[in-house]
TrEMBL record:
Its cofactor is Zn(2+). This is Carbonic anhydrase. Zn(2+) binds at C17, D19, H71, C74. Its EC number is 4.2.1.1. It comes from Dissophora globulifera.
Length: 139
């Protein structure tokens, strides 16, 4: 996997969880300064949350590989949308409409972009490929 990331450096996007125990650069053994390698991190490593960034990158640089990296013991396993909305409404009830309408659509068609899903085990340090396909095709 690390060799694939290094080899395809230009035009590769890694979507991963923002958990500080997970360091995708270290996992893949790549230099953070490598050109064309972009990290997009968010709670749970959710692709849906990355749509705006991925869309902009498709328009600007047309990345040819997208890697979605999840990990064991992810904090987001313990939460669901309803629980998050409930907690957010307690903090910011004035934003009720925005919080309740927090849907971001779906990623549609990026023909030719290779998508790779990987799972990183925090305990063993092993990164396993779990999915691979081409955007716009059934996996
Ligand atoms: Zn996580």
């Amino acid at each position: 996997m690390a060799a694939a990331v290094r080899a395809s450096g230009a035009g590769t996007v890694v979507i991963s969880c923002s958990d500080p125990r997970l360091n995708p650069y270290q996992v893949f053994g790549v230099d953070p300064s490598i050109k064309g390698l972009t990290m997009v991190r968010n709670a749970g490593g959710r692709a849906l949350d990355s749509v705006r960034t991925i869309s902009a990158l498709q328009a600007i640089g047309n990345p040819r590989t997208v890697i979605v990296m999840h990990h064991t013991d992810c904090g987001m396993i313990h939460y669901n949308d309803e629980a998050i909305r409930k907690a957010l409404l307690e903090f910011a009830p004035q934003e009720k409409a925005t919080i309740e309408a927090s849907k971001y659509g779906e990623i549609t068609g990026s023909p030719g972009t290779r998508i790779i899903g990987v799972k990183y085990d925090l305990n063993s340090g092993v990164c396993t490929q779990v999915l691979e396909g081409i955007a716009g095709t059934k996996l």
